[in-house]
Amino acid sequence: MSSAPLLEVEGLDVSFPGRGGTTRAVRNASFSLGRERLGIVGESGSGKSTTGRALLGLISTPGIVTAKRMAFGGLDLRGLGDADWQHLRGRRMSMVMQDPKYSLNPVLKVGEQIEETYRLHHRASRGEARRRALAMLEAVKIRDPDLVYHLYAHQLSGGMGQRAMIAMMLIAEPDLLIADEPTSALDVTVQNEVLRILDDLVTDRGMGLIFISHNLTVVGSFCDRVLVMYGGRIVEELKASELSDAKHPYTQALIKAAPSLDNPLAELAVVVRDPEWLR
Amino acid sequence: MIEVSGLSVTFRNGGRPVHAVRNVSFTVAKGESFGIVGESGSGKSTILKAIAGLVDTTGPALRIDGRPTGRWRGKAERRVMQFVFQDPYGSLHPRQTVDDALREPLLIHGIGDVDALVGAALADVGLLPIHRYRFPHQLSGGQRQRVAIARALILKPSILLLDEPTSALDVSVQAEILNLISRLRASYQLTSILVSHDLGVVAHLCGRIAIMKTGQVVELLDVASLRGGKTKEAYTQELLAASKGFTRADA
């Protein structure tokens, strides 16, 4: 891990004005990311995905994003224009979404989509882009890249589709990848293959990874550090290896609520929410 | 209570046969809770649908309570067995209130005293009287799944079929629903079959477990052997290892 952090966020707020008053989806979130795997866990509505989207400038009007500091590799992300974002996104930072069925273009061949991403950010001939796309498909452990290149999204299984998504996001070689529930739609055995690919990319290329998930087991075993979010706030930040010694009662309750294979319980612990956590 | 012997289900996909379930046999005793685990496409949900008479099976392969049964069921046979589906967003009619949803099975089966029964069923699953006239979109995912459970239990069935009842829910809500299912199962003395991809959930609720892969049961084992890792099949080991989280190759 290099000494200067890749990403620094201080006092990030995201709010959505609405008829019933303003919804503050993220409140005063501060964290930094080096060339490491940072996990963000929380339940639905805790603001974890919104945080990820805010980092990529994907919160559209009427959503409001404010921060005391939001810097990516020394560049201030606050108040960037559309053209600046266009330049950053894909090339230097990108995002893998949850379900490849919805995030791949259904009417373009998989290979063409990957190629398009490359040509958008690099001056390259079609032949060169195609060679890159095939190499990338191979890098994400797709056994027969030539075959998969010519398939459409609906012809791919969940695991294959997610690999194709990762290939597309990584062909421009970004420094930061935000993965929003990248393995939640996949079977456990396939999930681990996809995680291994992400893991190798962090290790080999020194990429920074933000891994958003609701699954504590996966985050605990895969990431280096974990942020726990509740009601838009980061309630706890800790090392993934120390997840079982979590201090915050919410984190402890989440861990206890999941049925475990190792310790059978007659009744599962229910999360009792304390209004104090929202202060 | 439920005897499945040599069950096969074949679908046709553009003239090409797809063998979703191949020659599966198991029995579930009265009051037992049985679990089926497998990855997507392994045929676990199809078995449940076959038991409920929702898909065609090849040959007579099912006996419920000693009597052979097939796709066609009488009203009394259907009443004995109730189903809770995975997606509480899809399984409730968007333009019917909770009251409508719970009333319907009672009307179909010609059971009187509807008002009192609906009220009692709501209380049973931990919902309040204010929820009774709400529409599904006014309820959270966990509350909707409570409604689905109430609807299944309102006919006082003896068999409850659960298809991934908590996989669309957050872990904290899952804990509440799993606790509810185990409490109701004990108080109604239900025989149940639970299908899930989550080994933790199945081990929590079930005594005996079938592991499925590509339409076949690869292993049948009790929960203690599963927890202890005493499995014979490599595939079960693989599932167990995978469900404990990510492992780096060098670790």
The structure class of chain B reads alpha/beta
What kind of oligomer do you see? heterodimer
Q: Shape of chain B from CA axes? A: globular
Average of per-residue pLDDT values of chain B = 90
Low-confidence runs of chain A: none
**How far apart, in Å, are the first and last alpha carbons of chain B?**
46 Å
Unreliable stretches of chain B: none
CATH architecture of chain B: 3-Layer(aba) Sandwich
How large is the share of residues in beta strands of chain A?
15-25%
DSSP strand count of chain A: 11
Strand runs of chain B, count: 10
Give structural notes.
The complex is a heterodimer of chains A (about 280) and B (about 250). With about 280 residues, chain A is an alpha/beta fold. Chain A contains ten helices and eleven strands. Chain A has a single domain, classed as 3-Layer(aba) Sandwich (Rossmann fold). In chain A, about 35% of the residues lie in helices and about 25% in strands. A six-stranded mixed β-sheet of chain A has the order 7-8-9-3-10-11, sandwiched between helices. In chain A, strands 1, 2, 4, 5 and 6 form a five-stranded antiparallel β-sheet that branches. In chain A, α4 packs across α5 (about 125-140), α5 (about 125-140) packs across α7 and α7 runs parallel beside α8 (about 190-205). The longest helix of chain A has 18 residues, at about 190-205. The mean pLDDT of chain A is about 90. Chain B is of the alpha/beta class and about 250 residues long. Chain B has helices at about 45-50, 75-80, 100-110, 115-125, 140-155, 170-185, 200-205, 225-230, 235-245; strands at about 1-15, 15-30, 35-40, 60-65, 65-70, 80-85, 160-165, 190-195, 210-215, 215-220. Chain B has a six-stranded mixed β-sheet, sandwiched between helices. In chain B, strands 2-1-4-5 form a four-stranded antiparallel β-sheet. Chain B starts with a strand and ends in an 8-residue tail after the last helix. The interface of A and B includes residues 44, 192, 217 and 267 of A.
